Structures
1.
Amino acid sequence: MKKDRRIGIFICWCGSNIAGTIDIKKVVEETSRYPGVVFCTDYIYMCSDPGQELIKKTIKEKKLDGVVISSCSPTLHEVTFRKTAESAGINPYLLEVANIREQCSWVHAGEKEKATEKAIKIIKSMVEKVRMNEPLSPVGVPITKKALIIGSGIAGMQAALDIANSGYEVYVVERNPSIGGHMAQLSETFPTLDCAQCIMTPKMVDVGHHPNIHLLTYSEVEEIKGYVGNFTARIKRKSPFVDWAKCTGCGECAEACVLKGKVSNEFNVGMGKKGAAYIPFPQAVPLKATIDKDNCIFLTKGKCGKSPACAAACEAKAIDFTKKDEEVEIKVGAIVVAIGYDLLQKEKIAEYGYGKYKDVIDSLQFERLNSASGPTRGEIRRPSDSKIPKEVVFIQCVGSRDPEKHFPYCSKICCMYTAKHAMLYKHKVHDGQAYIFYMDIRSGGKAYEEFVQRGVEEDSIFYIRGRVSKVFQEGDKVIVWGADTLTGKKIEIAADMVVLAMAMMPSAGARDTAKKLKISTDQHGFLSEAHPKLRPVETLAAGIYLAGCAQGPKDIPETVAQASGAAAKVVALFSGKELMHEPLVAHVDEEICAGCGVCAGLCAYEAIEIKDKKAKVNEVLCEGCGACSIACPSGAMQPKNYSKKQVLRMLAAATEEG
Amino acid sequence: MRIRISRKNVRGEFVKKVEELSGQKLLSCYQCGKCTAGCPLSFAMDIPPNQVVRLVQLGQEDEVLRCKTIWLCASCLMCSSRCPRGVELPKIMEALRALVLRRGIDVTDIPKIPADVLARAPQQAFVSNYRKHTS
Amino acid sequence: MKISYYPGCTLSTKAKSLDKSARAVASAIGIELVELPNWTCCGAAFPLVDDNLIGMAAAARILANAKKEGGKLTTLCAFCYNVLKRTNNVIATDKEKRKRLNMFLEEDYDGSTKVLHFIEVLRDEVGFETLSKKIKKKVNIKVAPYYGCLLLRPYEEIKLDDPEAPSILENFLESIGCEVVDFPYKVECCGSYLAISSQDAAVDCSYSILNSAIRNGAEAIAVSCPLCYFNLDERQKEMFDRYKGFRGVPIFYFTQLLALAMELDVGVDPNQHFVSPLPLLKEKGLLKMEVTR
């Protein structure tokens, strides 16, 4: 039996949070008499500087080697108090927190006597634990100082550049053949009306040429294994059926393709067609051709005319129909998930025609119409007959703020981009009229409100406050039935074209990616941040960070800020020599262990292996959950500082009578 | 004219009664106007449907119970089938009608129904009209 | 197949042509409609306030009755269908209301009767494919299907078809050879019971519907509800007075069209129609014999 511990108890009032319900005086009286306790005091805010000074001073003066802080939940200040203990010269793991707030005063408010009794029991049981705690040292974990960025829209690119510019290698994995994401599809951005391509291509080119960035486009993440500082990612590189090492991006294959003009163009959101061989868009990075394997006749039917026209047209002889998918494995220390968003499909909206009216388009389609590289070379022409529309109705909130049928949340960007669309339309069609049906105008960003008012004053955008009940085709017009709640009138507009501001949702496959990374999503599929206010770029999985609309609807400035924030976290992670892992892990008494293997089978973190007939715990992987210890038939496996003996003594103290 | 608002009317007897009879949370309505936009009878109404809800929210009992709107509602359910907040406006309309009818008032003036309607209209029209518009 | 049949008040008096044509086609297809014994009025309006339980008592009685007779009930009147189906849902799902409604009934009822509209029987029990093989002559008219409200709404309780883009009547009409005319007012209200208290408003609603159908090329309109029939047919009298250039269009019950297709001898009684369908039928060669009285 080792020398008896000299234990000190520090009881916090937490203002009135604890002292309002618990009789602190009584607690001090009772607990100071407990065996092993050589000192007991109380203070109004133990976590404050004076509180911490008190603890430090007392540890030194009273030569304490065991401390119980009776306060709020350990999730809040355990780390702080342990640092204080360390600076006073004792091992930080000889300090424990007895939670008499969340587990006592906050849940038993109004029952002073009972709460006080319970607080005393909680503190006593923690004293029992501390009595048998061992001093421990954190485990050092090596870090692979490389990052993986999943998704290469503006968020992914920004994070990649920031990390690469800090001197670390970055792998960017993108499932489309080119980087750029949705921002590459935009024509102009609010509130400056900058050409999206113009402000983005410099970044795209930087990403493409940066010596520290490895671009893996047309690729997908298959599996992620490992933990912070030590991830292994298996990436599938889809075959574009073109040897990109030889391809010059000249585009001759796309011109020659027999299916040119026949295959739906995803970049143009279903408007305008391309061929099976294609370059995604003129500013694509990498500027390489891809062959769409689902549509290419040679790949689906085995034959394309006498011989494929694309191969014949390619001077660099880069077409390679035998090229297969490849798999690569990379080792990284941190992952940034920037997988972006999709728009709710208009095919889901019953009262607006289930997507079957050609002249009812969505906002991304409008961007493509307005874009110089789009299907109409930037002229605003309606899809059905290419006429220039003179009456255009924009409908906001389609699928958003709609808890009954679609999504309850606000998609944040639609008010701003609809104002922008109406302005861009008027700048091109001077004698046209734009109407916007809205419920509210959310224009909170910098210069946003001014932008909207400019649209009203300079371009006569006609805002109508009310939602649209029905949209249908009548002859060559699209009839819109809305309401103006400000006057109470039903409004009917015979529009030439209708643009729907569809709700923003997580991009396709977001839930699958979350599963692969073992991170959580909210009920809509947006990736969950660690704390909505204070930790917006981290997930609860150490080493995995978030950026952009994958985490929730936001505009470009917020996305860029968040991406840089995530990058800063990664760089901070990489800045130390190694990572420190909590030493509160499982421990095997090899003398007792019989090597039965029950523990290894149970471990959710794959942290135990049986070697030489003994269980061996990988202290870096172990998260201290305790499952192995409960299952261990001989008791050889015990969590450090949470042994069976300790638990039984804690229980005895907590349940004693009187 | 200014109307005085306090918890006596916005959470007063009238509002509570309408909520109880209709089973609806009146404040769920955020006045988007989709109901008014799709209502086939709103062209004939003096107060559009979404404004009726707004007036009830404001506790304006007299104005609401005197309007023509609630007697022009055909219970076609188009409004509630499109409401993004799941507010069942037909139930609110019926609750308002009930509050008038249960005072012993008959809104349909049976002697004034034209002879040809009496002769040719189907039973279901009379039964449903009398149930909704008479006490 | 046998199925209990609830005609309702209107079908027995003002909408005899709907009842007659339905019985005739049912028997021709092999559906035995067994009229519910001792049936009474269903109440026509489903009570929308929470405390109006007595308003459901009549419907509950009919449903309990139907349960005794086999548990499957069909009706042709959209009002009856709506009331019966919604009352049934309440009894099946709300324990408290079921207990209280059962206090009005002779025997306890649990909400397990299946309520089907006749068009539902044709779609689900017979099948439109089968139906198309049983017809003798294609009804080669351009018909616009008009649904009205009660057949489709509220969707969560009725679940017959998509309330914004339904297709049950279209599929039915195609199976009997009609050319279907789609028009945007097919699910808008005709004015319903306002025909009694606010005739002008009801006429305006019905006029918008007819106008839209005619503009889209309809030669006739198929309905499933006697009140829609009244508003759309009888009220054309006012429309001719009020709206210059109004052309008028004949209205049919969907079962009448089916009877025509099967060349059944139900006859077309011009007294039952304000706008006579005879000229149209004659033009299309669908009159088997001269008018029956």
2.
Amino acid sequence: MASVVTRIKQKQIAQLIEKGKRLDGRSPNDYRELKIEQGIIERAEGSARVRLGNTEVVVGVKIENGTPFPDTPNEGVLTVNAELTPLASPAFEAGPPDADSIELARIVDRGIRESKMIDTEKLCIEQGKKVFVVFVDIYVINHDGNLIDASALAAVAALLNAKMSNYEIEDGEVKFKSGYTPLPIKQHPITVTCARIGDKLIVDPGIDEELVMDARLSMAIDDDGDIRAIQKGGAGYFTPEQVFEIAKLAKEKTKELRKKLDW
Amino acid sequence: MNDKPERLIDKKGLRLDGRKPDEMRQVKLEVGVVPNADGSAYIEQGKNRIVAGVYGPREVHPKHMALQDRTVLKCRYHMAPFSVQERKSPAPSRREVELSKVIRDSLEPAIFMEYYPRTMIDVFIEVLQADGGTRCASITAAALALADAGIPMRDLVVACAAGKADDTIVLDLMDEEDKLGKADVPVAIMPNLNAITLLQMDGKLTHEEFESAVNLAIEGCKKVYDVQKEALKAKYVGIKEEAEE
């Protein structure tokens, strides 16, 4: 819900963007400062903290044994969950996941799943019976806009950081040994979100921009520069030309980020 | 149902159900199918069978959700337990929660929300049988139900998916193409305003493939739009005939 301050800022934001400027001095295609730390939670098999300006997201990866889905008996399982903790924003409430947190988790999930980032067949211990289950839990610590890109980056960083225990099969029984190996990684998807305000497009919307935006469009791009997942959100629309412009922009932006992150 | 086809496109370039790549399934639309609702519509697209109903503008429930300057649009996309091969639990899944949200976001741009402050408009969608592309068919039916309820709209909203089966960009994916194909791009548009109100994608597409998929989906939407208009007209022609009898 738009706060009173935002209503006052709304006009200012729109006028600035009309001139190609933004409230915090960024140009339309700039990300805020990005910081990624990995391995911050020792008890998790993998973890990462992402700061995108004042937006902060922590992702923990837990890896456990479980049973595979009947339709994919030789593949490990990936589940992504997101918590919009009441700590992170006055707009969030404690309670079961709402539509916003489910959407966030599913956008991050699709980026990882559709890009085939993890080689899930290598997570199979015993076909049809035992596989590794990878839990990706997204924790929002501070919401200052663009949770999608911050969460997607944090999830990928945490998975790159994750390790699973070594095991051997003895008399049909799985025995875990000392030592760890990293997850089998094939791709490094990066998600770029653009917002439309008036007829202008901006990358990485901050919270005030999100509250006045007409609509947003997020695209997950893989190592080859191809598109793997898309989600439009918000109660507005895009013209086809704007959609194609965002696709180009997303490709450029992920190239830049890849170089910076060495992904 | 149990055997996976080796190829989705045969040597002649035809699809499993004999369609050409840019050919739609048959779409049947009917308006005013739920007498108790303020507006309703029924769609058949391939084996999809979906009913959409609209209640409102009406009192907001719970009251604290009311907005002082506009109406609240609520949307519930739900699949019947018997709509898919393996019985689906009637409790809303995470997929249904997400789809309810993106369908809502696809319909809102068309509605003059500010005309009905402190009220709520409910859109209920029940998928009776699913055959690939249920979100698109749901949007097409729900927009028609909103129009049938007499809610002032900038334009209708109409949806259709395109995607990639084997190496071909195809229109209006059916179930097998949705599950075994290489990409799925559902698109909703307001046809008279050159506006895309729903866009999702999963799979893998180059930028060129993505552009042709979106353009093909828009062409598909325009074909469905003609059926939508006819369905809306048919209702009033029916009323006129009754009145004249």
